[in-house]
Amino acid sequence: MAKGRKGGYRVEREILNEERLEELSQRLDISQTRIPLSYRLKNSLRCSVPSLKRRVVSFLPVLYWLPRYSIWDYGMPDLISGISVGIMHLPQGMAYALLASLPPVFGLYTSFYPALIYFFFGSSRHISIGTFTVLSIMVGSVTERLAPDADFLIMNGTNVTAEVDITARDQYRVQVAAATTVLAGLIQVILGLVQFGFVGTYLSEPLVRGYTSAAAAHAVVAQLKYIFGVSPIRFSGPFSLVYTLVDMCALLPSTHLPTLLASVVSIIVLITAKELNNRFSKKLPVPIPVELIVIVVGTLISFYTHLNETFEISVVGEIPSGLQPPTLPNTSYFSEVVVDAFALAVVGYAISISLGKTFALKHGYKVDSNQELVALGLSNAVGGFFQCYSVCASMSRSLIQETTGGRTQMAGVSSAVIVLVTVLKLGPLFQELPKAVLSAIVFVNLKGMFKQYADIVTLWRSSKIDLLVWLMTWASTVFFNLDMGLGASISFALLTVIFRTQRPRYSVLGHLPGTELYLDMETHKEVREVPGITIFHSSATIYFANAELYLEALKQKSGLDITKMITYKRRQEAKQRKRERRAARRARREAKRQVWGVFSVEEEAEHWVYLKGTDPETTTLGSLSDLQDGDITTLESSSEDTLSRDLERVSLGSLGKWTWDIHSIILDLSPANFIDTVAIKTLRNIFHDFGEIDVDIYMAGCQALVVEQLEQGGFFSDIDKERLFTSVHDAVLYCLNRRGAGALPNYETAAVSFTDSDTTDTTYSHTVRGCM
């Protein structure tokens, strides 16, 4: 690019359209030959030793890093990290089991088996697999829906007592939770094997944060009965949270004061200790296990003061020592929990992969999203056989595992060993632990989710659409329960995407002097319009939902109401054809008169009608007076003169202000990543309709996939491929070359010169001043 005279510039390069680009690709041998599907399928089924090894290692990532594991470098950090995480597993496992409406010991099982499975199949080195608040609440909603307390009331003759058969109820709920977990695990494994790891991307951050905030509300309401020592009715279905909260408020006068006192003291101690932990975190080698200390102290106080017998404070109860043998899940529950299982699979994976990618980015390794689906699915499916419920990565435990120096999943194995020792030897020691203490632990651990309500202010300032997604997710999850809320929130989030693509920003681009850039003229004041050329840009792809809006925006931005113009032109063409028929008839009558010299009466009447410029077949006597004087054609006017005036009347000039200032429109399709049949039809209509009023249409910036879809849709069957250009600048150069300065009546300083007049050479050198 070189400077020209008086602020212009000269461009000496080849103008590239799609045909020229294909020609160069073939000449330089850089075009990619399409590989037949049969060959690709055959190649994918080939099995060699290296490919088999890669597939086995990708399926079992432990085979990659375990042979390289250095005990001296990683052993001690992983051990310290594993002990720290294992200590957190104990209180969280028992506390979150209450959220799932299961006996606390099953929370310990859930903290043990899945962590071992993930050790072999997981690709993240830092996440801690086990119980998590949101999934525990989701499992609890399923167990309480299918196994409510009302179904397990003890019958005594004809009287029904208020006592619930807790053993039968818990056993049934464990079966429901195990079946749901196995089904959710199978869904995750199947999605991972078919490469559906991207499914988590449909859960945006505002959606996840709004969903977890609403889940925290469910968790709080679920724990109120343990904190206040009352027994409200637990409802299910839409507005169940509201009904439960109303019933809870009605029972407040019946609050059990010793239980409330134990809860309040535990909450105060936990909050104070955690704040001190955060303040002195940099000075402490490992965080103080506050939750475990509170559990131990609470158990000792309850044991020695007999809180259960003396003050009727509810305690954990019997905790069996040892592990449960594996059992097959009851598949008859699958049909009743399939929706809940899918929700558990998607939410659990979204939380785990987001944490895994965060730590992988920080420490410089890669997490395979599909393999994470498989690993998490196997952890759930295998764990379900051992009476575990759904698991995912825990943010608090993962942060502890990473900050205490954990390097690999050997830390997860160490934490599982801590849980195993507790289940085998120490479990019965926690039988006197008050449930109020576990509820206090859950309540305090929800503090991070309560802080997410600050997102409302942040999103209000940054993105109103994301705020709407957050609020809609929160409201639908709170009022329509967790499973229905997730489906409604995902649907709403997708609708916002469709809405934003259906109504994108349309703009006219102008040229930035001294460059090949074309920018929005409304937002960039330094750009200049290219006279005679309208460059139309859409911020989104064109598809069936916005194709008609695209056409309407093009009409508005170009100032050409193509519908009215074509209607007007076709009317003029119809009038022209009618005048041609009239002129032909007059010519025949004139010839006949000259031969015979007479008219019949009918011919004479018809002759005078023609003098008025009307059709005798459609004109009545009363309508003759309505004709305008300008329509009278005398016999002295020759047929040639009449045709000349008629043709002039329907020429492009007769359209006046609509067409003189635009001769070319360039459609910038660079944002389009696909195109469907509706959009192809719309583009074809644009080419044809604007062509009728002598406005040339060109396309620029199409991606290879879009060009391929245009070819498959038959777009180039009646439209020349030379109208498709590599860039907007190439299209502008072509328009200026084709139309020249003569086509720009209001652009006196434009000049175009050619270095080679040969039509086969498309290398142009032109100087353009004023717009460039």
Topology of helices and strands:
Layout: E1 2-3, E2 9-14, H1 18-28, H2 37-45, H3 49-59, H4 62-65, H5 71-99, H6 104-121, E3 129-130, H7 133-146, E4 153-156, E5 159-164, H8 166-193, H9 205-228, H10 240-250, H11 257-279, H12 290-305, H13 307-311, H14 334-363, H15 369-385, E6 392-393, H16 395-403, H17 410-426, H18 435-445, H19 447-450, H20 455-462, H21 464-502, E7 506-511, E8 518-520, E9 532-538, H22 547-558, H23 562-596, H24 601-611, H25 639-649, E10 662-668, H26 677-692, E11 696-700, H27 704-712, E12 724-725, H28 728-739, E13 763-768
Protein model, in words:
The structure is a single chain. The protein is an alpha/beta fold and 772 residues long. It is 58% helix and 8% strand. A 6-stranded mixed sheet has the order 8-7-9-10-11-12, sandwiched between helices. Strands 1-2-13 form a 3-stranded antiparallel sheet, covered by helices on one side. A two-stranded antiparallel ribbon has the order 3-6.
Termini separation: 12 Å
Strand order of the largest sheet: 8-7-9-10-11-12
Helical coverage, percent range: 55-70%
What is the alpha-carbon Rg in Å?
39 Å
Q: Please describe the biggest sheet, giving its number of strands, its sense, and whether it closes into a barrel.
A: 6 strands, mixed
Unreliable stretches covering 5 or more consecutive residues: 1-11, 598-602, 604-659, 741-772
Number of separate helices: 28
User: Proportion of β residues?
Assistant: 5-15%
Shape: elongated
* Strand count: 13
GO molecular function: secondary active sulfate transmembrane transporter activity
Organism: Pygocentrus nattereri (Red-bellied piranha)
Membrane topology: Multi-pass membrane protein
Pfam families: STAS, Sulfate_transp
